[in-house]
Amino acid sequence: MSDLTPKEIVSELDRYIVAQDSAKRAVAIALRNRWRRQKVQGEMKNEIVPNNIILIGPTGVGKTEISRRLAKLAKAPFVKVEASKFTEVGYVGRDVESIIRDLTDISMSIVKKEKQLEVKELAESLSEEKILDSLFPNNSNHKLSEAEELRHKKTRERLRKKLQNGDFEDREIEIDVIEDSNSMMQVVGPFGADDISMNIKEMISNVMPSQKKRRKLSISEARGILIDIEAENLMDQDELIRIAKYRVENNGIVFLDEIDKIVDQGNAGSGPDVSREGVQRDLLPIVEGSRIATKYGTIKTDHILFISAGAFHVSSPSDMIPELQGRFPIRVEMDKLNVNDFIKILKHPESSLIKQYKALLGAENVKLKFDANAIRSIAKIAAEVNTKMENIGARRLHTVMTTLLDDYMFEESSGRKKMITITKKLVENKLNNIVSDQDLSKYIL
Ligand SMILES: Nc1ncnc2c1ncn2[C@@H]1O[C@H](COP(=O)(O)OP(=O)(O)OP(=O)(O)O)[C@@H](O)[C@H]1O
Ligand SMILES: [Mg+2]
Q1: How does strand 211-218 pair with strand 297-300?
Q2: pLDDT confidence bin for 438, thresholds 50/70/90
Q3: Is domain 339-434 given the CATH code 3.40.640.10 in the classification?
Q4: What residue segments make up the domains of the chain, in order of their start?
Q5: Residues 6+ apart with CB under 8 A from 137
Q6: Helix, strand, coil percent values for the chain (each to nearest 5)
Q7: What is the pLDDT of residues 97-122, one digit of tens each?
Q8: Residue 200: count of CB within 10 angstroms of its CB
Q9: Ligand 1 neighbour 252 (Cβ under 6 A)
């Protein structure tokens, strides 16, 4: 778990997200409080509930971005779900539990990767021995004399040198490959992370035992497989599961996007397919703290941090069922972004749009430069289109930039080095016509 202080968390978030100071502050406190809770002794530790947060604000102002960055900082298992998907046709009540199952899977894969890194060197050297065994099997059934044994050793070391030198990469060896249900799954078809396929996947992996198969592979192909097998043997599965579960229960973060879509406006009629209030009721036990069965055992959800987000155009958080409201005590209104924010968003974040386009054209040996006036002009146009048409926040910068740079992205290819400077005039030439023509801008921007 990260031990950053709230101020440090905010300044890390500042590297990626412009404005939204109160949202940054709220998530920073929530994250730090979990670290603080870990230090608390005794019964009290169980009583302290997470600071669940609702981020309220229109589209494209950074709600998802803040949560995504926070999870990275926190080095915590993180899952993002659209709350609205639980109101769709085909939804059956208990499926909200899949959120916790997914989170546990994610935690498990993080822990596994960490451990794999730890045992990597040992696994590599063990797999080298295995390869040498197949290249140079010891078939004699009588006990070797001392002289024979010495010769044997010497040959093996000579082979090892050659192997390390890459001389045998194409040589074929036979190895035992474990075909577990997961690798069969890839044959059966591509499975996404959605619940239906998750359930099928779990069902199938329960009925199909793993099988050993002997296969002939080139050493270069076999090496990776052997390393994985050795690494797997070196890892204590029970320990992995224990760590993964601990992290989910104490550091896990669930981001519930579009929470407003499961909230009715006042008493305005019933929901489309599944009652929205029903979804809130389903979510309640998970947010309040309950035990969920996963394939790694039971997960207690009491201390998982929930961050939810929504535009709340027609409804408000106070339209949620009271029990759920009570579990989201922290509400943060996101700032509306203005022209100056847009300028900063274009320029400052770690991988801002301008930096991205520079990198893309850099790959063609083209140096892309933006005049300060040009950037201001792009920001202004984005803000103007947002007011004239639909306000999609910082997302508008994407459409404006794509349109602006379209010709360059098509024309430029690696040739001799050159430089392109985007000036204010160029921005206006390319975009003003489109902006002033309502119909045109509707399609293009
Ligand atoms: N405050 C901000 N600082 C930097 N970039 C931002 C900011 N707000 C939005 N962006 C950029 O705009 C895009 C959309 O932002 P994001 O996904 O966070 O929107 P959102 O608030 O979650 O909207 P929605 O309600 O539609 O989900 C992202 O590419 C993000 O990088
Ligand atoms: Mg979002």
Answers
A1: unpaired
A2: confident
A3: no
A4: 6-105+243-333, 115-136+146-241, 339-434
A5: none
A6: 60, 15, 30
A7: 999 999 999 999 999 999 999 999 99
A8: 14
A9: no
Q: Inter-axis angle of helices 339-347 and 372-388, to 10 degrees?
A: 130
Establish whether residue 61 lines the binding site of ligand 1, counting it when its CB lies within 6 angstroms of any ligand atom.
yes
Residue type, 38: Q
Residue 358 burial (CB < 10 Å; 0-12/13-18/19+)? Answer: middle
Cα separation of 49 and 301, whole Å?
11
The number of angstroms, rounded, from the C-alpha of 179 to the middle of its chain's C-alpha atoms is 28
Highest-scoring range by mean pLDDT, 147-151, 399-403, 415-419: 399-403
pTM across the whole model:
0.80
Neighbours of ion ligand 2 (CB under 5 A): 63-64
* Residue 293 Cα to ligand 2 middle (Å): 29
Q: Measured from the CA of 337, which atom of ligand 1 is nearest?
A: 1
Q: Please state, in angstroms and rounded to a whole number, the distance separating the CA atoms of residues 16 and 66.
A: 8
- Please tell me the distance from the alpha carbon of residue 300 to that of residue 164, in angstroms, as a whole number: 48
Rounded distance, CA 417 to CA 363, Å?
11
Pocket test of ligand 1: the residue of 13, 18, 61 to mutate, having most ligand atoms within 8 Å of its CB, is: 61
Nearest 5 degrees, angle CA 422-CA 424-CA 429? 90
Superfamily name and number for 6-105+243-333: P-loop containing nucleotide triphosphate hydrolases (3.40.50.300)
Concatenated DSSP letters for 113-170? Answer: HHHHHHHHHHHHHHHHHHHHHHHS-----SPPPHHHHHHHHHHHHHHHHHHHTTTTTT
Residues 6+ apart with CB under 8 A from 351: none
Of ligand 1's atoms, which has the minimum distance to the CA of residue 397? 12
